[in-house]
Amino acid sequence: MNIAFITSEAYPFAKTGGLADYSYSLPKALAKRGHSVHLFLPRYYCVDKHRFQCTLIGEPLAVPIGNGIRWAGIYYTTYLDDVHTYFIEHDDYYGRDGLYDYNGVAYNDNAERFIYFCRACIEAMKQLAIAPGIIHCNDWQTALIPLFLKTHYIHESVFQKAKSLLTVHNVGYQGVFIKEVLQLMQLPDNLYNSEHIEFFGNVNFLKAGIVYADYITTVSKKYAHEIQEHEYGYDLSTVFKSHNKKLFGILNGVDYEHWNPEKDNLIPHTYSITDLSGKHKCKKALQEFYGLPKNNFPIIGCISRLTYQKGIDILINTLDWLFFDEKEVQFVIVGSGEQWIIERFEALRAMFPDRIGVWWGYNEKLAHLIEAGSDFYVMPSRYEPSGLNQMYSLAYGTIPIVRATGGLDDSIEQFDEKLTTGNGFKYKNNDSAELYTAIRYALRVYRNNFLMKKIINNAMLFKRSWDNTAKEYEELYYTISKKYQ
Length: 485
Ligand code: ADP
Ligand code: GLC
Description:
Blueprint (H helix, E strand, L loop, with lengths): L1 E5 L11 H15 L3 E7 L12 E11 L2 E10 L6 E6 L1 H4 L6 E2 L2 E2 L3 H18 L6 E5 L6 H5 L13 E6 L7 E2 L3 H5 L12 E2 L2 E3 H8 L2 E4 L2 H6 L3 H4 L3 H6 L4 E3 L27 H14 L8 E8 L5 H14 L4 E8 L1 H13 L4 E5 L3 H10 L2 E4 L9 H7 L3 E5 L2 H6 L13 E3 L4 H15 L2 H13 L4 H18 L2
Parallel strand pairs: 1-2, 1-8, 2-5, 8-9, 9-13, 13-14, 15-16, 15-18, 16-17, 18-19, 19-20
Antiparallel strand pairs: 3-4, 4-5, 6-7, 10-12, 11-12
Helix pairs in contact: 1-18, 10-13, 11-12, 11-16
């Protein structure tokens, strides 16, 4: 099948979170299954044309926006082997340091930047005569594509067979802008109503995608249900509900080439399910990195964007309590994001400097060391569409302690010490006391060698490869194409 995959970030070109991992791994897995995959991204400043061997192709691209056109360049690379990768270059919009913001403040022309990107990708496919069967869009940044296909490009021959799929990775980010942006989209005012793209007096890009895409997916089955509820839907729950016949959940996967303790070259010692000695050495290396005493206390690790979604504030309350009650435990974190979370963490660390290690910023190598060297991995998310780190943790025999939401609930099975089944610890509500109880249980299991060995074994046997995920998307792509033939 001919698939166009459109995204605002993809590893290794540009990454702020799990969307980049997804947009690298899924296209690769689909290509490996024999599909022809065309990946489209903005040419941000961080996409080094030399390093990624990009060449300028085609004619200068005329992209309609507002009252006129703006020209773009199309760069192409085969850096991801079988995945044809195209970058839309327009330096006024993308030649900046951050992808969406500068120091946490969103760019004030984000609506224009991504309206332009959506139109440019469509125009590029037209110019290059890429006639996709499926156009797979991701999140609000690319959610206008289904709308444009059904308006501006409805009679375009190259898209006659094209069906659109929108994957929603995070309903917390919707792309909500003032009504005047309609003019930039060159769309008539009659679309501005609550059935289409109007949203409490504004325009909502994600809503446009939900309404106009032929199919919608989210990144776990549980999240596909949750977003239809008021608590998780961020004011779009009724919209999701009224479109739920075309809504599906497909869990993300793990790239076992990158996240594999047997061959990970970012960790100091490799190890396997049959020989964990390297893991113990990684633990010492982790303690050394953070300047913590090199003892055998259990280490709880965390790698996170520091935002409200991730529930780090709930974790801080729990740790405050835990460290008073429980002397023999260490905690390490690498994170980047909001300052208020960093300040609260620093205050906690000042109380327990020999048991808490922090590193603020983005650090891929350290993320691997935390996965390898920790005993437990905590994800206290308020909501978690899929989550990747809990699955990376399983691969490293590092036991997840998670809130039972979204993909965390779908991938983690509660440990049962009588049956010795399960691969982690879960708690139900967004509540420091429930998290505290889950951690205490985990620490009790840690002190029992037999149980700890069992749970590590269960964790390391878990497998969810991107090929599993790609297979499910493939089935859905075929269903969509057949349905609309
Ligand atoms: P989200 O996309 O919501 O942040 P995911 O669990 O899907 O959550 O993906 C997070 C990805 O970003 C993982 O690959 C994780 O290792 C990485 N990551 C997040 N924060 C950092 C950080 N500070 N340093 C290194 N990697 C990070
Ligand atoms: C979002 C979600 C995360 C998911 C990722 C990739 O950032 O927060 O749960 O794993 O997208 O789908």
